[in-house]
UniProtKB/TrEMBL annotation:
Belongs to the aldo/keto reductase family. Pfam families: Aldo_ket_red (PF00248). One of its GO terms (molecular function) is oxidoreductase activity, acting on NAD(P)H as acceptor. This is NADP-dependent oxidoreductase domain-containing protein. Keywords: NADP, Oxidoreductase. Transmembrane segments: none annotated. Substrate binds at H111. InterPro entries: AKR, AKR3C2/3, Aldo/ket_reductase_CS, NAD(P)_OxRdtase_dom_sf, NADP_OxRdtase_dom. Gene3D superfamilies: NADP-dependent oxidoreductase domain. The record marks K80 as: Lowers pKa of active site Tyr. The keyword Oxidoreductase applies. It comes from the Eukaryota.
Length: 298
């Protein structure tokens, strides 16, 4: 089975660059379906599992992990706290750990900067994140859907820098200001909806390039889309329920690299169109329902 490369985070921990996500197509699924998806992913080498409390499926993910029977040290498990101003982060993580059947997670994220508009709100949430890391309940802490101004708020009081920012990232949503800021600060970037340009945002200016590059490398267009992320040192999250597709990503995507000019070509073409499948709303649930329609179609 192909071994997934890792990326070193600013806290010294390493994260697998290809992840299986339980948002989007797996959002709010029945436990039996989530168990099936989790075991399918793990059995095909996807040991980096990405969940969240508001995906409403952590129990199924946990049952899937147990059913797969792999050693805990083999897995890299991410989950997220919603991040509202009045949230007890430690209690939320304890609940997530119970559902997942784990003693710790590898990465814990603030899902959305909901409390940024409240004086000290986001700083309070981040202080609690630092505390759960210090308590050993998560090895790394980070954020999701953060923009530059959100980082500036937490950096005023933070003792620990976020290890990662998980954002919507594909050629039509490159968020270069955020990505450049993260790189300057040593914060890794993780991409959800990396295949949006091939699915819900089609037709578009990258269509012909995807076809040409897939033909050149003898892979699928999805492989090209994921590779475009990986070759920029951006972690890619897939949610496919197709075993054939998952196997293809594990073998084909990891078996080649795009040339610098090909990465730039997709970036330049992508900049001609704006598409965001997510808008920061008033509830995490609303956000993920939006995201559900903006990722992979199986």
């Amino acid at each position: 089975m192909t071994s997934v490369p890792t990326l070193k985070l600013n806290d010294g921990n390493e994260i697998p660059v290809l992840s299986y996500g339980f948002g989007t197509a797996n959002f709010g699924g029945k436990d039996e379906d989530i168990i099936k998806a989790a075991t399918l992913a793990i059995n095909n080498g996807y040991y980096h599992l990405d969940s969240a409390e508001c995906y409403q499926n952590e129990s199924g993910v946990g049952a899937g992990i147990k059913a797969a029977g792999v050693d805990r040290s083999t897995l890299y498990v991410t989950t997220k706290v919603v991040g509202t101003i009045d949230q007890d982060v430690a209690a939320a993580l304890d609940t997530s750990l119970s559902k997942l059947g784990l003693d710790y997670v590898d990465l814990y994220l603030v899902h959305v900067p909901f409390s940024a508009g409240s004086p000290g709100g986001l700083q309070k949430i981040w202080t609690q994140m630092e505390a759960v890391q210090a308590a050993g309940k998560t090895r790394s802490i980070g954020v999701s859907n953060f923009e530059v101004e959100d980082f500036e708020i937490i950096f005023k009081t933070a003792k620990v820098a976020p290890a990662i920012n998980q954002i919507e990232f594909h050629p039509y949503s490159q968020q270069r200001e955020v990505v450049d800021y993260c790189r300057k600060k040593g914060i890794a970037v993780s991409a959800y909806s990396p295949l949006a340009a091939l699915t819900v945002a089609r037709p578009g200016p990258t269509d012909e390039a995807y076809v040409e590059l897939a033909g050149k490398y003898g892979v699928s267009e999805g492989d090209i889309a994921l590779r475009w992320c990986l070759d920029q040192d951006i972690i890619a999250i897939t949610t496919s329920k197709s075993e054939e597709r998952l196997r293809g990503y594990m073998t084909n995507t990891l078996g080649f690299k795009l040339e610098p000019q090909e990465i730039e070509r997709l970036s330049t073409l992508g900049s001609q169109k704006d598409y965001r499948g997510i808008g920061i709303g008033k509830s995490c649930l609303a956000i993920d329902v939006i995201v559900t329609s903006s990722n992979e179609v199986d």
